[in-house]
Every structure is written in structure tokens, then in C-alpha cells.
Design goal:
The protein is α/β, with parallel strands linked by helices. The chain has helices at about 10-20, 50-55, 65-75, 85-100, 110-125, 145-150, 155, 175-180, 205-215, 285-300, 305-320, 345-355, 375-390, and strands at about 30-35, 35-40, 45-50, 105-110, 130-135, 165-170, 185-190, 195, 200, 220-225, 250, 260-265, 325-330, 335-340, 355-360, 360, 365-370. It starts with 7 loop residues before the first helix and ends with a helix.
């Protein structure tokens, strides 16, 4: 069946009939994108502040990524990890170059959740310990290991018992980590900005304090930058705002310009990993590596991290200037912004979509904005105008 010739209603009907039913969907069929804009199957245009849930940092249909994919697809798409690969070797070197200090090795995989799963295994095998500390309101994925480190009970409870040994402490409360981190703790895993938990930035002293406690007590410090990596917060990695040197850094989402890809960057305290301790069929394939190389090059050549810092200040200042009683707080870092409301966010997001702006939730009562880093200031002003009208209505 040629989907180009299908109507919007037909596409929706097919997905409803044959999809797994896991996702709550807006009645919109996205058909194409360019930069920070997307169009639906009926030709309606939207400013995209979802960005594939933080994936499209270099914009939709980025020409540099598309060219890299085309060139590599005509050369070699897959290469098992039992052989060496030129695109893989170049990407590993690039990740070591741009990473926070000390992260000179990488394990390549296919998603952020896979990266978290691998980091948990690496921490256990490196330390010989079994316990983990994670933060309340933290989110690290929905596979069993990553879910065990994720706090929200509605995600966890249907699948319990989960992987044993995980404990939770309040975010931005160093004294609680100090009390809970013991000699059986393999690692502490934290986000620099809690994304799904409500766009909550971590305090620098807290994050550095957790890192110091891990060093002192023999645990590893895992930083989850699946959502905050690759320019999103105004630096290549959010860890760099605070001078962090994590032992394991989890990446995903925007890493390959829209292709599925993830990675764990490893520091010296992670130790040497035994052969066959972990593995992947598709991780580090030449196609994804070529896309990631093009993405990193584009991010740097276009100064997109610096752009995110500048436009992020503009976005947050504009959101904080909205005088609507429904707003409780505005938070964010770079082009990662959250507007916490005193009520559910979904109706406001639906109203925004009707006005040509797409945004998403972070929990039930936070409007989250993750636009492509190529978004124009003019488009951000349009977004701010529409958010103001929706919230003040």
C-alpha cells in the first residue's frame, strides 16, 4: 500500500488497528519536516518544539546528515563488532575529543535506554558491587534495568519485581546521598537536568558533591545525558556547565541526527571490561556512525550549542514574563524549558497544536519545550506569543 496516496483518516485507522496501543497519540499525521518546522498530511504547518522528543537537535531533514547517510548507504551499512570499521573508529575518536575530561573510551549502542543498561552492567562488573542510587523524579528508560533506576511508580509497579538493589534519594539533596551511599553501592546515576521529571536543573555544588562522594567511597558516578547531550543545554554536554568528570556518561537521542543511536563513554575508574561482558548486533554500525559524525560536525560548524545558550535565555526570559495565574514555575537550561502549571498540561498542549505549535509534557502538569537548535528567534517569538495566549485565555 502506497502511504503517499493514503488519506489522514486511513493512516490513523491503520495505526490504530495494527499498532500495539502503547502510545497516547495526537490526531496528527506528521508527513515531512525541515529545520524546526513540520507539516502534517493535510498540509498544516507547525513550529516543532518537540523535536522528536529531543532528537532533532540539528533540525529535520538536515542536508549534511542526509548526504552522509546517502554516501554511507551506498558503501557499507552494517559491520559486526568483530571487525574494525572506519566510520566507527572516526566516531570513537570524535567522542573522545568532545567529551568531558577523562572519557576516552566508548561503547556504541542503539538508544539511550540501551546505554543506561550497559552502564549499569559496567558499574557492577568494574566495582564488584551490586547496589545503585538514583534520584526521585529521575527517568532513565523503560527496559528492566533502566526502569529499575526510574522513579515513577506508574512506570515501575506493573513490572515488579524489577532488578534488585536500587534505592532512591531526593534530587539536589547532597546530605541524603551521603547517608545512603555505602560500601555496597556500585554507582550513583543522575541526570544533569531531570527531563521527564519536570525539567529540573541540578545544582552544580550538588552534582560535584555527589561525584566527590563516589570517588571517596569507591562507587562510580553515572551521568545520564540522553536528553541533555549534543548542544541541548548550551554546551556540548550539560556536565560541562559544572566541570563534572563522570565515570560513565550515557548518550542517545540527538547523537546521530535522528537515527537510533546511543553510547556509553567510559573513564579510567570504570576499568577494563572483560571480553563478552556485553555486546550488540547493530551498535556502532557504519550508517549510524556516519550520521553521528555529520551531526557532530554540523553542531560545531554552526555553533549550535552557543546558539542554544543564547536562544534558551531568550525563551526562558519570555516564558517567565507570561503573567498567567495557572503558571507555578518556569525552569530550564539552554533550549530545554519547562513550564510547571497548577493543573494538567495536556489541554494547553492541544490548544497550542491548534495554533501551530507542538510541545510535549514532562509529567502531567509540565509543558516541555525541546525545539531543534536551528530554530529561529522569530519562530521562538511566535511560540512565546502562542503560549501566552493559550495560558492567559
Amino acid at each position: 500500500m502506497d502511504t503517499v496516496l493514503m488519506s489522514t483518516a486511513e493512516i490513523i485507522s491503520l495505526e490504530e488497528r495494527h499498532g500495539c496501543g502503547l502510545y497516547a497519540k495526537q490526531p496528527i499525521v506528521l508527513a515531512r519536516g525541515e529545520g524546526a518546522r513540520v507539516w502534517d498530511s493535510d498540509g498544516n504547518e507547525y513550529i516543532d518544539c518537540i523535536g522528536g522528543q529531543g532528537v532533532a537537535n540539528v533540525g529535520h531533514a538536515n542536508p549534511a546528515v542526509a548526504q552522509a547517510l546517502s554516501d554511507q548507504a551506498r558503501t557499507l551499512v552494517t559491520c559486526p563488532n568483530g571487525f574494525y570499521s572506519g566510520p566507527r573508529a572516526r566516531l570513537l575518536a570524535e567522542l573522545a575529543r568532545i567529551a568531558p575530561t577523562g572519557l576516552q573510551r566508548a561503547y556504541l549502542c542503539n538508544s539511550g535506554a540501551e546505554a543506561v543498561e550497559a552502564a549499569l552492567k559496567f558499574a557492577r562488573i568494574s566495582t564488584g558491587r551490586t547496589k545503585f542510587l538514583a534520584a526521585m523524579r529521575g527517568f532513565h528508560g523503560r527496559t528492566l534495568g533502566a526502569l529499575s533506576a526510574t522513579w515513577r511508580k506508574e512506570y515501575r509497579e506493573p513490572f515488579e519485581p524489577l532488578v534488585p538493589g536500587f534505592g532512591f534519594v531526593p534530587y539536589n539533596r547532597l546530605e541524603r546521598v551521603e547517608r545512603a551511599l555505602d560500601g555496597d553501592t556500585a554507582a550513583v546515576i543522575l541526570e544533569v537536568v531531570q527531563g521527564e521529571g519536570g525539567v529540573i536543573p541540578g545544582d552544580g555544588d550538588y552534582l560535584r558533591g555527589v561525584q566527590a562522594l563516589c570517588r571517596e567511597r569507591g562507587a562510580l558516578f553515572i551521568v545520564d545525558e540522553v536528553q541533555t547531550g549534543f548542544g541541548r543545554t548550551g554546551r556540548m554536554f550539560a556536565s560541562q556547565h559544572h566541570g563534572l568528570e563522570p565515570d560513565l556518561l550515557c548518550l542517545g537521542k540527538a547523537m546521530a541526527g535522528g537515527l537510533p543511536m546511543g553510547a556509553v563513554l567510559l573513564g579510567p575508574r570504570a576499568g577494563e571490561l572483560p571480553k563478552k561482558a556485553h555486546g550488540t548486533t547493530f551498535g556502532g554500525n557504519p550508517l549510524a556512525c556516519a550520521a553521528a559524525l555529520a551531526t557532530i560536525r554540523y553542531l560545531e560548524e554552526e555553533g549550535l550549542a552557543e546558539r542554544a545558550a543564547d536562544l534558551g535565555e531568550h525563551l526562558l526570559r519570555g516564558l517567565r514574563g507570561i503573567e498567567a495565574p495557572v503558571i507555578r514555575e518556569v525552569r530550564g537550561l539552554g533550549l530545554m524549558a519547562g513550564v510547571e502549571l497548577k493543573t494538567h498540561a495536556a489541554p494547553y498542549l492541544s490548544a497550542l497544536a491548534e495554533r501551530g505549535v507542538l510541545a510535549l509534557t514532562a509529567g502531567s502538569n509540565v509543558m516541555r519545550f525541546l525545539p531543534p537548535l536551528v530554530i529561529s528567534r522569530q519562530d521562538l517569538d511566535t511560540v512565546l506569543e502562542q503560549v501566552r495566549e493559550v495560558l492567559e485565555d
